[in-house]
Amino acid sequence: MSARRYALVGTGSRASMYLDALAGAHAGDGDLVALGDTNPGRAQVHQRRVVAAGLAAPELFDPADLADVVRRLGIDRVIVTTPDRFHADYVVAALDAGADAVVEKPLTTTEDGVRRIAEAVERTGREVLVTFNYRYAPRNSALKRVIAGGEIGDVTSVHFEWVLDTAHGADYFRRWHRQKENSGGLLVHKSSHHFDLVNWWIAGTPTRVYASGGLRFYGAENAAARGLGPRPPRGTSEAGRGDAFSLDLAANATYRELYLENEGYDGYLRDRDVFDAGITIEDNLALVVDHAVARGTATMSYALNAHSPWEGYVVNVNGTRGRAELTVVERGSVPLAEGVVDPSMHPEGVGQDGTRPVSERLVVQQHFAPAREVEIPAGEGGHGGGDALLLRDVFVGPGPDPLGRTASWRDGVRSVVVGIAGNASLASGQAVRTADLDLGPGALALGGELTGS
């Protein structure tokens, strides 16, 4: 059987994970045939990296021509790593042209995007794989085993808090994510990871969402209220260097090559000030979400903070027989000299904080019994050790997996619908039923039965 032929559209930094895999560990499992980006300079950077790995240069193309590229070059799969607002466009174009799609989370950002993908899947019968790498992290898989094994009984409620620190959290307010029309806000772009974990852990489908939150730390108004004074408009400047909330693209080889040296093509600035005007996403969010589960309803309370002094998450799952508690510290504090923006993607560069060390702990306690700690297998690499396992599923295919970690487009819908409904709730001040959203054929399903359409 010949290797699959791949095209990738969207050549920012996130594309590196897939390109490195096809040029390295999975070079024999697929051929990278084409690269597309609206910024030809960024596409050329990745093309040079592929050639440097000893492989043939992939053809460069304008993303508007994706369908033609799929047909002309016989593409089997399209990997979509563009800004979120364009995911649905390229997934649908790939399916209609005769290729399957592999798409970064989130699947899409709007009801319309979900509906268009659902209709394209029904129309073509093609496959859409959503890359939820956190499912593969050993700590998250360990919690799944505890719940699926019945140790805490039927799940009744989940409390989930995720904190992003002032390096990683701030980064969403420097770049294209800061505009809700581009990313759907953190409820869609970031939290879809978290909502997918809960859906997967408890085998549930979200049915009702109430959200509260706002922009309370970043942005010009908040800066003025705290008396921060004049700010450098971008981090790559004399004034920006040394500022705790600035990102100097010139100081990072990857950012310099991908973004700073290619601004002339499209004017995209990767290093804007997190305290300037025009930011339309929230930095503090809280939700209450009802989930349909095998026996009734489970309720999740969820909180996200994007300006924490440390990064990690706490999950408490209550059941009819007991409780499971997972606590993860991905970075204990933010040293200004460290230079790591995302600790989950680059754990190798994160230093230890003696008071709050990088750690993970899963504790299970049944009613009327002492607590016990569950051993978590060691994971290496990005996203808690999940990236390498995910890439094997993407490029080789999933083997036997009782945990069901491979995510379909419907899993993508179940995660993103919480954020879409949450954004609607933020706008209206009312709870939103996911069944009232116009999502297209068979988009929400639990055990084969539709819970929304």
Descriptive tags:
disordered C terminus; Rossmann fold; Gfo/Idh/MocA-like_OxRdtase_N; Dihydrodipicolinate Reductase, domain 2; alpha/beta; NAD(P)-bd_dom_sf; globular; Putative dehydrogenase; 3 domains; 453 residues; nine-stranded mixed beta sheet
Provide the fold topology.
Elements: E1 4-9, H1 16-23, E2 30-36, H2 40-52, E3 59-61, H3 66-73, E4 77-80, H4 87-97, E5 100-104, H5 111-124, E6 128-131, H6 138-148, E7 155-165, H7 168-171, H8 180-183, H9 186-189, H10 191-202, E8 205-214, H11 220-225, H12 253-258, H13 263-266, E9 284-293, E10 296-308, E11 311-319, E12 322-331, E13 359-366, E14 372-374, H14 382-385, H15 387-395, E15 407-408, H16 409-428, E16 432-433, E17 444-446, E18 449-452
Parallel strand pairs: 1-2, 1-4, 2-3, 4-5, 5-6, 7-10
Antiparallel strand pairs: 6-15, 7-11, 8-9, 8-16, 9-10, 11-12, 12-13, 13-14, 17-18
Helix pairs in contact: 3-4, 4-5, 5-16, 6-10, 10-16
Structural class: alpha/beta
Q: In CATH's first tier, which class of the largest domain applies?
A: Alpha Beta
CATH architecture type of the largest domain: 2-Layer Sandwich
Total individual domains? 3
How confident is the prediction overall: mean pLDDT?
A: 94
Q: Into which percent range does the helicity of residues fall?
A: 25-40%
- The end-to-end distance, rounded to whole angstroms, is 38 Å
User: What value does the Rg take, in angstroms?
Assistant: 22 Å
Strand content: 25-35%
**Shape type:** globular
Family: Belongs to the Gfo/Idh/MocA family.
Pfam families: GFO_IDH_MocA, GFO_IDH_MocA_C
Domain Gfo/Idh/MocA-like oxidoreductase N-terminal: 5-131
GO molecular function, one term: nucleotide binding
